[in-house]
Write a structure and sequence with these properties.
The protein is elongated. The chain is 49% helix and 20% strand. The chain is of the alpha+beta class. Helix 10 packs across helix 13. The relative contact order is 0.10. The chain contains 13 helices and twelve strands. It has three domains: 110 residues, 2-Layer Sandwich (Alpha-Beta Plaits); 106 residues, Chitinase A, domain 3 (Roll), CATH 3.10.50.40; 163 residues, Trigger factor, domain 2 (Orthogonal Bundle).
């Protein structure tokens, strides 16, 4: 076998391979033997039919398998003999078999980039540890109490405040005519009895009406002027000015429970002090994890900037396309129109490529560090990483089962776990730097 290497770029090489006829013949003979061992030919016991008869019976399949094996084996030898560190195969083309049986083909491969590792000790990271304040603890307490709160009837002499709920009856007119007559398809907006809405809310059938309810009492009657926005979802009401006659027929207010012994017992706390201490401990653990994650990102960012090398083109395009797809989907989920996305595509594409370059650069540097330092990820460490992913993403049993079968996802998580282990080792010897932006 003969292989000629032609560099295309710093990270891409073309391998032109010539396989002598005798080597190709050996590969074909091996395929024929394998077929003969399994062939079921009428008149012969399984595996006992003559090779010539097997070749005739399975000619097309043998030809295809022999050609694939010849190329596969020759490619592997070419890579091994030339000590190529292949990242991925881009293409295998120009396959041909000469009349004398000589096989030729060309393989284009992207190589793992070569570069000098930057200094790895003393990488600058911020020194801003996140402090947990009494206000944050109180916010958690308040949130817990709200989750346990209930609504009670609003007293007759009590003015409604923001977030109270009022029950209202309303009818509407526009230009002296009932709204239902002026706009026949707007019955829901024209008249309603017993409608509940939250005082001050942005969300209600009649836009703006909840903001006019603050300070009202049960039994109050008033008129409200409403102008439907020009971009209102119901086209027939856009720009319509209506007068609403409103009567408050009922109300409820939200009452927070007392942080008493019974409520503390429900959450397994002996006292308010114990509950606050538990909340503070949880917040401190979350803050510590966030600080560590931020500094790991700072280490990764440092590596991406410190090592300069050309990235494999196919991988860069694939990573960019994946990130761009995620960006487009994210914006569409937020309600951005296709027209606006089209206008922003160049900017989003540039952002995706920049992120892709940084991601890949860190991956290659991390892998080089792993090799240089002999860092390996044990099965136990990978299992612990996956268990953390399951907890953080709150995966269901069905999702966990699906993940266990998804080899591509597992490989991706394995790379992420290796990356974290390498970056964590560098973080241990990083240099906390005052003034570095957190």
């Amino acid at each position: 076998m003969n292989a000629t290497l032609t560099p295309v770029t710093k990270t891409r090489t073309e391998i032109a391979v010539t396989v002598p006829a005798d080597e190709a013949a050996k590969a074909r003979a091996a395929v024929v033997r394998e077929f003969a061992a399994q062939a079921a030919i009428p008149g012969f016991r399984k595996g006992k039919a003559p090779a010539a008869l097997v070749e005739k019976a399975y000619a097309d399949r043998i030809d295809r398998e022999a050609a694939e094996r010849t190329v596969r084996d020759a490619y592997g030898k070419a890579v091994e003999e030339n000590k190529l560190d292949v990242f991925e195969i881009v293409s295998i083309d120009d396959r041909a078999t000469a009349p004398d049986g000589t096989v030729t083909f060309k393989a284009v491969v992207d190589l793992v980039p070569t570069f000098e590792l930057p200094a790895l000790d003393g990488i600058p990271v911020d020194d801003a540890d996140t402090a947990v304040t009494d206000e944050q603890v109180q916010e958690q307490i308040d949130g817990f109490l709200r989750s346990q709160g209930t609504f009670v009837d609003l007293e007759a002499d009590r003015a409604a405040a923001a977030e109270d709920m009022l029950q209202i009856d309303y009818t509407a007119t526009t230009d002296g005519k009932p709204l239902a007559e002026a706009v026949p398809d707007a019955a829901t907006f024209a008249e309603k009895k017993g409608a509940w809405c939250t005082v001050g809310s942005e969300y209600f059938t009649v836009p703006g009406l909840p903001k006019m309810l603050e300070g009202r009492k049960v039994g109050d009657a008033f008129e409200a002027e409403v102008e439907f926005p020009q971009d209102f979802y119901k086209e027939s009401l856009r720009g319509v000015k209506a007068t609403y006659s409103v009567t408050v027929s009922g109300g409820r207010r939200f009452v927070l429970p007392a942080l008493d012994e019974a409520l503390l017992k429900r959450v397994g706390a002996a006292s308010e002090e114990e509950l606050r201490a538990r909340i503070r401990s949880n917040l401190e653990a979350s803050a510590k994890a966030a600080d560590r994650a931020r500094r790991l990102d700072q280490v990764a960012s440092h590596l991406a900037k410190a090592a300069d090398f050309e990235l494999p083109a196919a991988a860069l395009e694939r990573e960019t396309e994946g990130l761009l797809s995620n960006l487009l989907r994210y914006n569409m989920d937020k309600g951005v129109s296709k027209e606006d996305l089209s206008k922003e595509r160049d900017r989003l594409s540039a952002a995706a490529r920049e992120r892709a370059e940084a991601n890949l650069r860190v991956d290659f540097v991390v892998e080089a560090i792993r090799r240089a330092r002999g860092i390996e990820l044990s099965n136990e460490e990978f299992t612990a990483f996956l268990n953390r992913v399951v907890r953080e993403q709150r995966l269901s049993e069905a999702q966990i089962k699906e993940l266990s079968k998804n080899r591509m996802a597992l490989r991706s998580y394995h790379r992420a776990a290796v990356r974290e282990k390498v970056l964590s080792a560098l973080l241990e010897k990083a240099s906390p730097t005052p003034g570095l932006k957190a």
